[in-house]
Design goal:
single chain, about 25% strand, alpha/beta, about 290 residues, binds hypoxanthine, disordered C terminus
Length: about 290
């Protein structure tokens, strides 16, 4: 696998005209951001040696090299989900390649079900931490030399980037929530009892992505930042059915806010150091915008 990562990275290096240090996974809620990227060079996943092959017809993804607000970026349009049948090594392969290409900061977005009773559909939740509930660990097997065998996970989501997002949201009067994301394999949504259980375990939102990519990025020393758009609610006394269409609809409605925060984050984050910040307080004033 290590040789494959190197091979893919050098193939891409030959085609890159910029040297981005920032990457973004355009998950649910961030499609719009792709249209704001300028000086684009798009490479379909199908053309990239060793990249996982898309299982969903008409859903083929691509890598985009370009500029966002003057910053060189690498964007992944379309990600690989574990529920689609990919192995964890495949799901996280692009992150390993990003590291080889010199990526230092990764932004991710996703759609998630809200379990915190203070959440509403359409809310944006800045991810402060996660619970890995996937059945297979992305670092299982021979350790890659990018990080230790037993990585510390205390600050998986960069505190300075969280603070920056909180500041941007406050400035732009965008209401944001903070919380813990639990990553599960899917593809079922949760039963009411499961939503309740995951909330009792300490999670505020549940989804089927992000955690594997973030673990591998962390193992590579890439600082990460993530936002969930809360597309449905579960675990309350009044259970409501969830459908893929509703998830899409809620994500689309929240899209302009998500896009605005992410764009600003990318532009400003270059100036933020990843120094540890003690006593970070997630009870930011933006909580009071409601
Ligand atoms: N559960 C799991 N994944 C999801 C959900 C959910 O409720 N909503 C969007 N993705």
């Amino acid at each position: 696998m290590y040789e494959k990562i190197q091979e893919t990275a050098s193939w891409l290096r030959q085609r890159m005209t910029t040297s981005p240090t920032t990457a973004i996974i355009l998950g649910t809620g961030l499609g719009q951001l792709a249209s704001e990227i300028t000086d684009k060079k798009e490479i379909p996943y199908a053309e990239i040696p060793n990249f996982p092959v898309s299982t969903v017809e008409g859903h083929s993804g691509k890598l985009i090299f370009g500029k966002l607000g003057g910053v060189d970026i690498l964007a992944m349009q379309g990600r690989f989900h574990y529920y689609e049948g990919y192995s964890m090594k495949e799901v996280t392969f692009p992150i390993r390649v990003m590291y080889e290409l010199g990526i230092k900061t990764l932004f991710v977005s996703n759609a998630a079900g809200g379990m915190n009773p203070q959440f509403n559909i359409g809310d944006l939740m800045i991810i402060t931490d996660h619970i890995n509930f996937f059945p297979e660990h992305p670092l299982r097997g021979k350790n890659y030399p990018t990080g230790p065998r037993f990585p510390d996970m205390h600050e998986t989501y960069d505190k300075n980037l969280i603070q920056l997002a909180a500041n941007i949201a406050y400035e732009k009067k965008i209401r944001v929530k903070f919380g813990v994301y639990i990553g599960l394999q899917g593809p079922t949504f949760e039963t009411p009892a499961e939503y309740k259980m995951y909330h009792m375990m300490g999670a505020d939102a549940v989804g089927m992505s992000t955690v594997p990519e973030v673990i591998v990025a962390h193992h590579c020393g890439i600082r990460t930042f993530g936002i969930s758009v809360i597309t449905d609610l579960g675990g309350f006394d009044n259970p409501v059915e969830v459908s893929h269409e509703e998830v899409q609809e809620a994500a689309n409605a929240a899209q302009p806010f998500m896009t605005e925060i992410m764009r600003e984050m990318i532009v400003r984050s270059e100036k933020v150091t990843s120094q540890k910040q003690e006593n970070f307080n997630t009870d930011h004033p933006t909580e009071k915008w409601k």
